[in-house]
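Comment thread on ticket #2218

A.B. wrote:
> Attaching the input chain for the structure job we discussed in standup.
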Amino acid sequence: MDTESNEKLERWPQVSRGSIEKLKQWLATQPHLPQVQEHEIALFVHANYGDLEATQRTMENYYTLRTSYRECFADRDIFNKALQTALSIIITMCLDLWMRLEGNANGHIMLMDMHGMHLSHMTKLNMGAAKKHMFYVPEALPIRLKQIHFINVVPFMNQIMFLTKPFMRKDVQEMINMHVNLDTLHQAVPIESLPNEYGGNGGSFEELESKHICL
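C.D. wrote:
> Ran it. Output below, let me know if you need it in another format.
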């Protein structure tokens, strides 16, 4: 086993060597899937709490969607002007970067700031892309999604949810929390995990951006 895999297995004791070997054998029978390194397999096992059947489904979804969902995964030049305006692409890139640099975690909390969003933006909503993205995150990414928070909620949030809820699993819908102010957000998310601008002490937007650009 490579050094990186050893580090992952030490960090996540529920990921056993036996699980890695079984999944390697399964992958050998799946010619449409790429070769996957052991430490990457460990990420998927951890994200699925050691359930090998669920891990196989997640891996299948992950690699299949990355092939078919080319508008989000092909030509990902972060300095491309069009790319910088595509929210779903930026989110998937950030999650990919997190997984490669940090490995997995016991849970992920997503925070969406709706400040500056207007009703006219709804006319530009690509429902096809939204549907794919809302399938990809809970069904394909090797993360443990725990909560989704929207802050600075806009008056037409109900219309947005009406359009997007049919694409979400029920358990994902139950993760969603709406906040019109930061007080309720602070009750749900640790202060140390929030940027200074959101009343936390995790660093300013500028500091966090500089840190991740350097990475």
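A.B. wrote:
> Thanks. Noting for the ticket: The chain has a mean pLDDT of 80.
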